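Sharing a chain and its predicted structure for anyone who wants a worked example. Both blocks are below, sequence first, tokens second.
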Amino acid sequence: MGADHSQQQDRNHDRGHDRDHGRKDSAPTLIGSVQRALRLLEAMYAEGGVTAKRLARLTGIPLPTVYHLLRTLSHEGYVLREGGAFRLSDDLPLAS
């Protein structure tokens, strides 16, 4: 096992594998829902008050997903709804 195991470790190392941290060469793991929520926040920052339909058009995010994300962002205090438009909260709940 000694020589064979050592050779396997060398092959893994040569391919960019790190036994404790996964692949070194791979892209980072990204959370799509977080990326979509950030795109909505960026669009609201750029546009001010904007409808969910307009946010869907601006971001390319499907309208039902926009509504779900806006509901969560509103619940967490990041977004306010005024009539049919959504905008960033005046007092964003960011850590200071």
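Comments welcome. The longest strand covers residues 79-82.
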